[in-house]
Amino acid sequence: MAVEETNISSIMKIDEEKQKLLIGYMIKKLNKIFPIDDNNRLMVIFFLISGLDLINSLDELSDERKCEIIDSIYEHQLHPKNDSDLNAGKFGFTCHRSAVGRSEYKYDYCNISLTYCALTSLIILGDTLDRVNRQAIIRGIRLHQQKDGRFVQSLIEEESDIRVIYCAAAICYILQDWSSINRDTMIDHIKSCQSYENAFGQTIDAEAHAGSTYCAIASLKLMDQLNEVYDQRKRQTIVEWCLNRQVSGFQGRPQKDPDTCYSFWVGASLTMLNSFQFIDDQLHSEFLSTTFDNDTGGFGKFPDTSPDVLHTYFGLAALSLRVLNQISTEIYVQSIYPALNISQRAYKHLCSIHTKWNTLLSNEKLENL
């Protein structure tokens, strides 16, 4: 009986006390990053805004504060001067706020990952995306795609791996426009990143990795091609690799220690493959409880390590997968939409934006008849 009580008490749940700690931790970090120019500013804002959303605490920010954050995100957007500039490929969201919505900064180029972070943050904050230059972003993505289907992070950078493919897929899904990219070569490149281990590496011939596997599965899911590209037998081999990553929490690769962030990367992949129910949830939850800081709030990378923004977010995202898969009924955590890595609430808002765009498009077609 004592063992059962110990196990129950070690199950990781967000109660009112932990929620208050997390709110304080994330708002403090948000206030620190908000006024400064930092190359990772948009990414950190995403982690903090989405984290608050997952614990149903976005309203801890006043409407005025939300508007300030939305406006500051738009300050990162690069616009073309005119239609002839649309094919330059540099337009979207950049790491610098010096853009301030203008086009005079000829040495600034958009960044695919930061464009994903900007768009998802705007959606989470309830923005309508009316100020997003959809046409410029979509045309620009075309120039970021290489002949072999992969994407570069920026036109002035050579960084290119499956993470950028995922961000490009997410952007096209959010903006509801796949017209500028070659999905066939994109899918072929994703398939070529699958290793002999049956999971996916960051690049061709790279070691299989949990984060890369999530990017591959989520990209195919967003393209509605997961079941078309991999039949049930092949999907099962990916599931087996993912399930074998559990040692208490989840590791990113074989022979590595479990890490908080992989609870999401592996858990989300298993969710999209309809296999989350096969994990040992007791062990998983106990591991997450050891990486949570009960003094300051937040999750660390490993047990008894200091919390950071990235692992705090992915710890919450992992807990939200338990809610989504009906393993947990926590009232302080809402479920996530794993393919886009945003809450189900934010995803529903995105769907309402898509409905509006589709209605406007239909009306335009009727007017042109």
Notable characteristics:
globular; mainly alpha; disordered N terminus; Glycosyltransferase; single chain; 52% helix; two-stranded antiparallel sheet; 369 residues
What report would you give on this structure?
- The protein is mainly α and 369 residues long.
- It has one domain (12-354): Glycosyltransferase, CATH 1.50.10.20.
- It has 15 helices and two strands.
- It has a two-stranded antiparallel ribbon with strand order 1-2.
- α3 packs parallel to α14 (309-324).
CATH top level? Mainly Alpha
Oligomer: single chain
* % residues in beta strands: under 5%
Q: Order of strands across the widest beta sheet?
A: 1-2
* CATH topology (fold) name: Glycosyltransferase
Describe the structure concisely for a colleague.
The chain is 52% helix and 1% strand. The chain is mainly α and 369 residues long.
Secondary structure topology:
Blueprint: H1 2-9, H2 16-33, H3 41-54, H4 63-74, H5 112-124, H6 134-144, H7 162-175, H8 183-192, H9 210-222, H10 226-229, H11 232-243, H12 260-272, H13 281-291, H14 309-324, E1 336-337, E2 342-343, H15 344-367
Antiparallel strand pairs: 1-2
Helix pairs in contact: 2-3, 3-5, 3-14, 5-7, 7-9, 9-12, 12-14
Family: Belongs to the protein prenyltransferase subunit beta family.
Keywords: Metal-binding, Prenyltransferase, Repeat, Transferase, Zinc
GO molecular function: CAAX-protein geranylgeranyltransferase activity; metal ion binding
